[in-house]
Amino acid sequence: MNDTHPEIEKKMFELLSAMSPADRLHKTGRLYASGKYFAEMAVKKQRPDLHGIVLQIEIFKWMHQSELKELDMPKIEDHLLNSR
Description:
Mean pLDDT: 89
Helix content: over 70%
């Protein structure tokens, strides 16, 4: 889903294009870390009983739910839980 106005998207592209690759990497890394932090807070608020890998799986699901087909999640969870 993309709800960004085209003019804003164009301006963001221009700003990012003007940055060095290192600066772009740094900015996107910080953005991802912020998103993960807020996802973790949301999951912990809804499910304070979760810890460890189960908590990490729920955070992953929260962050990537729009990108993953629902049918893929059981395979991913099984892999994460059983590959340790």
